[in-house]
Amino acid sequence: MSCIFCRIAAGEIPSQKVYEDERVFAFRDINPVAPVHILIVPKTHIPGADAVSSENSSLVARIFEVIPKIAATEGLSRGYRVVTNVGEDGGQTVMHLHFHLIGGRKLDIMA
Ligand code: AMP
Questions:
Q1: Which of 24, 33, 62, 77 is the most interior residue, by most CB within 10 Å?
Q2: Paired strand residues for 109
Q3: Is 49 in the pocket of ligand 1 (CB under 6 A)?
Q4: What residue ranges do the domains of the chain occupy?
Q5: Which one of 45, 96, 98, 100 is the catalytic residue?
Q6: Cα 4 to Cα 79: distance, rounded to the nearest angstrom
Q7: Per-position pLDDT tens, the chain of length 111
Q8: Which residues pair with 48 in a beta bridge?
């Protein structure tokens, strides 16, 4: 298994885990852009948001059920941002679907 996020989700590479269930894994971004910066990933490999289909979209739904729970645990009652980058122009650097949960400060308007 060569995908770094597959390996993190499998516990093969250490991470600062904040949440785990049978299908979803969440951990702190190694290069945070805000006081709270967490990555939420499916344990199953999906290359990116452009590879979401009727076959795997229930995983995305599960991730979006988990996000508010993590946000509450992190104390993000004032709000937060959820972002997924897609492809080279979108700034995706890890080709395993992940959602950035960013918060803990007033965020700038996105480019
Ligand atoms: P993206 O650029 O949208 O593909 O996001 C990839 C994110 O993964 C970046 O914000 C990186 O800082 C983060 N990242 C890469 N490797 C690790 C790692 N081993 N542990 C935690 N975060 C990582």
A1: 24
A2: none
A3: no
A4: 4-103
A5: 98
A6: 29
A7: 689 999 999 999 999 999 999 999 999 999 999 999 999 999 999 999 999 999 999 999 999 999 999 999 999 999 999 999 999 999 999 999 999 999 999 999 987
A8: none
